Amino acid sequence: MHEILTVQLGTQANYVGTHFWNTQEKYFTYANEEISLVDHDIHFRAGRAPNGSETYNPRALIYDLKENFGALKKAEGEYVEEFDTSGGIWPNSSTIHTGPPISTHPYIDSLSHPHGPLPSLLCGQPPRYFTDLSHTYFHPRSIMPLPRAVIPTVSHLNPLKSFRAGAEFYHDLDIADPAGDGDLFERDVRWWVEECDNLQGVQIITGADDAWGGFAGAWVERWKDEMGGGKGVWVWGVEKYIEPKEQSRESRLLSLLNETLALCALAMHASLYVPLTSQPLRSPSYLTYDPGSAWHVSALQATALETAAFSSRLRPASNTRRGMFQDMEEITNSGGNRNVAKLEMSIQDAESDQIIMTGDKSDYRMANGHMIAADEYEEPKKLDVDMFSKDMGNIGNTHSSASQSEHVFGRVEVVRGNWGLGEERTEGEERWSGPVVERYHSPLTYPQLTSFPTIFGVQSDHRLAIHTALTTSSAVATQIRQMERTVRRYVSVDEREAVSDGLKTLCEEYEEGWDSGSDEGEDE
């Protein structure tokens, strides 16, 4: 069946995950409707509620502080609105403090009346919690509320601002339960893994610029140890929205330090790590959003990651082809250990969904099946929204890389809708050095729901044609070097050498076999 388990770590990740799950439910088809191109069993599981009714819930684990869950949807006795911290994932005793109940958002109330008028865009009220957007009912085993009392006080800083606090938070929760429930993996994860027939992998959506990056690093390391390898482990490192009180240079530097440490940890253990910024360095005029809104930022991030991995959940059909996690990793790694990729996307109106395209492995070194000369070769074009690159000029002294050429090693594209890209090019027997590009096509466009903010200025009937590209290229090394230069003086002395060496070793993976003709990466 090739199931995928999704793990969400932190509030920003849970906003992203909420958009993701709402979108998955939109792909559902019912009696007398044509079978969906999406294989829902990859991300959902069939079950039975205590009252005997059939259920269909996401394969998901959702971690956050208990106070950030808001009013979770409740249905037929299977879903809980109030969390029982006495039986939660914290293995030791805890004191229960009962606060006033949280009212449901008007948008959620409107969804409870299926025969009423369609709800307008969040009923005109911004969300207070990620659950204010959620169309989805989750299994009780999906919900992992963490009481604030168990957060380690490792510094005078806000305890969930520090990468190290997140790592310690994980290890505190990982303490074996005297009652015999085992460690965190045994308590939370194994049940989900063992009910899968043929697990394709796990995708972790995590905050990257706060403590959740440290939590994710420890979580992925344990997964790798327990599952006997790191294949099929995709991590999306999401940058949170920009709060006005966090605009100071010190706050931005702390966020960048957390992102750098998360990159070091996750690049070591994940098979693919994709950072997703909250403020794209390159963006088109049709993208209009509020970088200070978790709702807006998460919608942008969710659109990109949902399409980038879209082929992993497709049902094999005459006009679509499934590309599983390991298939795509093979392309982005491109014969090396290049497991940090940048993500770009372009968006246009979904004018037609009647196109027929076939997915093939293509090679940009070939044109119409004939060899082309090296001086005629052009790198794959840049897409409109760069979700990877960051502007660090106002944090530390960095060198601009705008004028540098980009060398691409591997690229996985997903094309949804009619982009007029034409037929795929074939690969000949002889090849010269250049990137291998895998392109997946689908006529199924991206649905915009009433829970989705109006951030894309395109005229469509609630559908978007999207083109994404996951790329490993020299641009990855360029940004990692900039991050290393900026944060190395702020890393503790006992960590500085290990972090610096780890980042430089990672950069070397994006230089082997290719000479940029520049010494920009050398120490001064």
Automatic annotation (TrEMBL):
Location(s), subcellular: Mitochondrion
Stated role: Involved in the partitioning of the mitochondrial organelle and mitochondrial DNA (mtDNA) inheritance.
Protein name as it appears in the record: Tubulin nucleotide-binding domain-like protein
CC per GO annotation: mitochondrion
Origin species: Pseudovirgaria hyperparasitica
Domain Misato Segment II tubulin-like per the UniProt entry, residue ranges: 2-112
Entry keyword set: Mitochondrion
Residues of the DML1/Misato tubulin domain: 127-314
Keyword Mitochondrion: yes
Biological process, per Gene Ontology: mitochondrion organization
Top-level taxon of origin: Eukaryota
Family that this chain belongs to: Belongs to the misato family.
PANTHER family: MITOCHONDRIAL DISTRIBUTION REGULATOR MISATO (PTHR13391), PROTEIN MISATO HOMOLOG 1 (PTHR13391:SF0)
